[in-house]
Amino acid sequence: MKSIPLLILTFFLFSCQTLPLIKSPVSPADENALTCPSPFLKEKYRLVHAIETRVAGRTQSAIIGVTVADPSTRSLSCAIMTAEGMVLFEAESGPGALKVNRALPPFDSEDFAKNMIEDIKLIFFAPEGKIQVKGYLPDGSTACRYFEENGDLIDVIGNKSTGTEIKRYSYSGALKRHISFNKTAKNIYERIELLANEQFNYSLLMTLIEAQPVKSELLKKRKTRKISKVKSP
């Protein structure tokens, strides 16, 4: 009997995972004192990642991803390009709107753009839904579960040993996304792994190249006006 490749077995186990039980603290006071893990952006940032796409254990592509994300407005712009700088995909998303500016094969399907934007929001933005339960998983990890408007459930999990994770489940409890932030001393976004459960399971391994805060245009204008006033005779 032939052995099953490890990554295929991992995907099989991943696709079979269901919603785990989160045990709330015994007392309401302890529950109120529990702090939910929050690996999300607190201000507008521009992040550049080297991305490896893997399907059935094979690296399909090695690309560069550029994301500008603003958590205050939940708006973002993103681009995928080759190492040589050729733009393969470019899109932007604001409240209730998605605009694709460029999409070359195999990134030209409508589902790809929608799923990519949703994945980026899942990684960098805090859930919009209400907290359904917060407490602890059987392994001792802290976990907070959010109920989203579309019926999905998002678990944000923190563990001192393994770092932070985000898991997205369907309303029926099937795992759709699993994001792992590898614990590092420098930047939580230094190494991100995303496992996706779709018709064809795949994974993304994102390695940080650059991370820079982006000052808002309004703040820039205010500073420009102040400088102009100071220089005025």
Question: What can you see in these coordinates?
Answer:
This protein is an alpha+beta fold. It has 2 domains: 18-37 and 128-181, no CATH class; 41-125 and 185-216, Lipoprotein localisation LolA/LolB/LppX (outer membrane lipoprotein receptor (LolB), chain A, Clam). The chain is 20% helix and 42% strand. The protein is built from 4 helices and 12 strands, in the order ααβββββαβββββββα. It has helices at 6-16, 28-33, 110-124, 217-231, and strands spanning 45-55, 58-70, 75-81, 87-94, 97-103, 130-136, 142-147, 153-159, 163-169, 175-181, 191-196, 202-213. The chain is globular.
Brief rundown of the structure:
The chain has helices spanning 6-16, 28-33, 110-124, 217-231, and strands spanning 45-55, 58-70, 75-81, 87-94, 97-103, 130-136, 142-147, 153-159, 163-169, 175-181, 191-196, 202-213.
Reported CATH architecture of the largest domain: Clam
Which secondary-structure class do the elements indicate?
Answer: alpha+beta
Helix and strand element order = HHEEEEEHEEEEEEEH
Mean pLDDT: 85
Radius of gyration: 20 Å
Instruction: Calculate the terminal CA-CA distance, rounded to whole Å.
Output: 87 Å
What is the CATH topology of the largest domain? outer membrane lipoprotein receptor (LolB), chain A
Question: Can you give the helix content as a percent range?
Answer: 10-25%
CATH homologous superfamily title of the largest domain: Lipoprotein localisation LolA/LolB/LppX
Strand order of the largest sheet: 5-4-3-2-1-12-11-10-9-8-7-6
Largest sheet: 12 strands, antiparallel
Please count the beta strands (DSSP E, at least 2 residues each): 12
- What's the number of helices? 4
How large is the share of residues in beta strands? 35-45%
The overall number of domains is 2
CATH class of the largest domain: Mainly Beta
Unreliably modeled segments? 1-15, 226-233
